[in-house]
Amino acid sequence: MELKPGSRWKSAVCEAQMVVVRPPSTLGVLQCGGADVLPLTDPATPGGAVDEAHANGVLIGKRYTDEASGIEVLGAKPGKGSLAFDGRALTLKEAKPLPASD
Question: Can you give the residue ranges of every domain in the chain?
Answer without folding.
Answer: 8-92
